[in-house]
Design a protein that fits this description.
six-stranded parallel sheet, 31% helix, 4 domains, Alpha-Beta Plaits, 16 helices, 458 residues, alpha/beta, Rossmann fold, disordered C terminus, 22 strands
Length: 458
Amino acid sequence: MQIIVCGAGKSGSSIAEKLSQLGNEVTIIDSSPELVKKLTGKLDIRGVVGHGAHPDILERAGARDADMMIAITSSDEINMLACQIAHSIFEVPKRIARIRDKSYLNPSHQDLFTSEKLPVSVIISPEKEVAKNVLKRLEIPGAIENIPFVDDKLKFLAVKIDDDCPIVETEINELTNLFPDLKTVIVGLLRDGEIIIPKSNDKLIVGDIAYLVCPNELSRRAVSIFGHPEKEARKVVLIGGGSVGSEVATMIDLLATKINLTVIERDDASALGLADKLKNVRVLKGSGVDRDILHEADIENTETLVSLTDSDETNFLSAAFSSSEGCKRSLALLNNSDYQSLIKSLNIGEFIDPKAITISSILRHVRKGHIKRLYSLINGNAEVIEGQVSGSSELIGPSIEEMNLPQGLRIGGIIRKEKFIMPTGSTYIKEGDEIVIFSKPECIHMVEKLFRMSPDYY
C-alpha cells in the first residue's frame, strides 16, 4: 500500500516505522526539516517538508496515487483539513485522523464526519483508547494485559510468572490434565526479551510473561491459576486530571460497580472542574510526587495507583513513591522506552504505552482480509488478530494439525455461533468462525492471507 503519514511526532514516526517494516510505501510529511531528515535517514521512507493540509504538499507526497492517509499531527484541525483535501482533491480512498478535542467527539455531532461534511473515514482518539485500556487493566489486576476480542467473548491476557506461581516448571501439555475445564491456550511467551511460540512440552519458568487466550467468563480463574489471584481494585488513586486522566475518572465515576477513586491534580482550574463534574470522586489539588499529598490520598491503603500526567518523569516517580509507601500496584503512562524498561527492572509497577495503543488502533485499518480487531504489543514484535473466516479461506478443509501453520503463529480461540471452541490439532475450522490468532511479525502476511476474502484478493 502507498500510505501518507502527516505528522512526524512520536506517534507519527512510530507508525511510519511500523508501516515501512510491513512492506508499505510510506511518505511522511512534517513542517520540521530536522524531523523529516532524521526519519528518512533512519527508515526506508520518503519525506516531504511542509504543511500536511496544503494541497501542493500533499501532491508532492504522492496523494494522487495514495491508498491511505493517516493525519496524526498535534492539531485536530490540521488533521481534519488534511482528510478533507485528500478526499476532495485527490480521492484518497481511506483517511484516518487523530482527533483529541472532546467537542468534536461529542455523540450529538456524530453526523459531522461524513463524506458530504468532514470526510474522515476513521477517527482515532488516543485518550479514549488509553482510558479503555486502563479500565481493562483495573478489571483484572493480576493481568499485565487484558484485551477483549470477539465482542468480549474472548480475552487476551498477559501474566507474569513469579516464584509463587503454582504451575511454574509445569509442561504446557500437562495443564489440560491438571485443569481440564480451564479452556485456556498459551499462545506465546516473552522470555529474556524474546517472543517464543511455545511447544507442548515447553515449561513455564520464573520471569516469563505468558500470553493467554481464554473465554471471558474464565479469565479471572485463568489469571489466578497462573499465580495472580488479586481481586478487582476497589480503592484507586489517579494522578493527573488532564485529557486522559479526566476520561478515566469519568468512566470510573459512571461504573455501576463503584470504585473508591481519588484524583490528584496540580492545576487549580482542572482540579475544580473535575470536582464539579465528578460526583462520586474525591479530588485533591497537588502533585503526584508529593508524599504528603499521597498520604492524604491514603496511598498506603490503596490497591492501585494510576499515573496519567503528561510527564513521564512524574508518572514514573509517583509509581516509585507509591510502591515504597505500600500501594499494592501501580500503572504509569510512559512514552519513553527507557522509563518502560526501568519500571520493569526495578519492579515498581507496570506501564501503559500510548504509542502502542494508537498504533494498534491504526493497524487494524491497514490489514487486509476480514480482520476485525488487532492489538500490537512489545514494540510491534507480536500481534493479536481477530478475523472472520470467509468461504474461500485456506483455513477451511484440513484440520489445524494438517494445515502445517508456520511456527510463528498460534490459533488461540474460536467462536462459532456464539460458542467457544478450544483449538486443538484435530479441530476443523468452518466458514463464519471468528478466530483470534497470536502472530510474530514475519507471519503477519500469512495471517492476512488466511483471512482473505477470495483466492484472487491480491
